[in-house]
Amino acid sequence: MKTTSAFLLGAGLLLAPLAQAALAPEADNAGLTLPPGFRAIIVADKLKSLRNLTVAPNGDIYAKTRQDGIYALRDTDGDGRADLVKEFGSGGGTGIAVHNGWLYHSTDSNIYRYKLIPGELVPGGEPERIVRDLPNRRQHAAKAFAFGADGRLYVEVGSPSNAYGGAKDRAPGAKGEDPTEFLKTFGGYWSFDPDKPDQTQADGIHFSTGHRHSTTIALHPVSKQLFVAIHGRDQLNTVAPQFFTDDDNAENPAEVLHALTKGADFGWPFTYWDPRAKQRKLNPEYGGDGKKLAEPGKYPDPLIGFPAHWAPMQLAFNPGAQFPAKYRHGGFLAFHGSWNRAPRPQRGFNVVFIPCDDKGWPTGDWEVFADNFAGKTEIASPGDARHRPNGVAFGPDGSLYISDSQAGRIWRIIYTGGQ
Amino acid sequence: MRVIAGFFLVFVLAACSKPEPVAPVAPVRTSASPAATPAPGDPVSAGPAPDGAALFAATCATCHMADGSGVPFLQPSIKGSAWISNPDPQPLLSLILRGSAVLGEAAQAYDNDMAPQEHLTDAEIAAIATYVRTRFAATPVEKPVTAEEATLARSRPGLP
After folding, report:
1. Interface touch B116/A167, C-beta < 8 Å
2. Which of A2, A305, B111, B115 has its CA 20 to 30 A from that of A86?
């Protein structure tokens, strides 16, 4: 305990200006592996399966549950652990964000907002529905959203499909169909007025197209650019075993990071990004054989091609208040962990750091920031993982919060320096 | 049955001279169905019975996982599944053949749909059913599922 006390004293001195002298990290960082000088605190544990996170300017935390309401959490005594945990609302879903004094959230069909009341942890009253009746066919139905520099609300509608392989999608010999009509309402981002109730998809501006599913979109604080992470396709070796080995499938295609620009077409369902060859290739549903390349220049190269199947869930940019300079304005992306690498071990289950340059643009590098959420290195099935990272959000003091879909845990990551 | 089997053997031998329409053979895959695969829909296969464990690994484990545990919210666990534990194999055979379309409202519990597996032969479907009944039923069902039972399931639309 002497060591712990000395450590806490050190942490207290460092964080004193932030009035968090009593922050009490877990002795072993709760089993997480973090870079030197970082510490983890368990904010809350054993909640329902958690999706995305947001933190209000006063430090209150809001976490979406996948199937039920929203958790509101508040640390009243400054030790980092939530003393008040309330669940409110219903409908499940994925997206959540505080914006201009409102708490916005998404179910798989609608975008709602609650007015935040100063001092009140739980917003009162019924939510206002901003966007209604978005397409929802269960598969890839999560509705990620964010607010652009133009103030508009950008909302994702995923593709309820693997590679648009028709009735045999995900089965051997799946043949791609013409997605023109499908992509008019699926596989893109649409922007809306964030204050106007009951808009439909037809009221939105169709902003980008040609992606499979994206569960996160985030605005960079310096470049004011929106960035999205996209989940790549599954089961290359199932659909076309004559061209793709188990290893080819385990390592293809990349999970990708792109800048979201007006009119962008990210190449789904025709193509995928091979992260090892760093090339865009044709999907087997559209004549690909693991070698044939997509038409050059037709679709943008990703800013980063992450390992296959890791499942990028939520991206947050570091506002820069607490972590060392290296991490200032960089991205933090939670990976849920794979299920489609079998018979190879499943991978992911971590939070990666994405360095950004002075202009607020990803440099193309990335590294694992927080790991060992799974609790072991050899995972055959995602159900074996102790925790699966899902949400990431920064608090007003620059702490990083991470949510867990597996065991309902929320961590707070702080920088104390030292070892 | 002997007469029927003999008939089908002749049928299969006759079919061997025609090109096989699907079921591509991947030379590098070790987990795929063993040896020559008859054309889909053939009630029985020539040669040794298909290896249910290998077929499960190649066809089912991708989504349901090698240990049958599934993936939370995306694909169900099949451990102790009522479909697999049912002594009557017909519902299970229909589910394998036609995918989650036969589940109706119950399919809403998971995000992903199960693709039909009608490209597999009846002998392969039977081998998979036999394997999962032995391994994942609440009480292991040792009675093998026959290719003829799969033929019957294929001949009837929807659930029995």
Report:
1. yes
2. B111
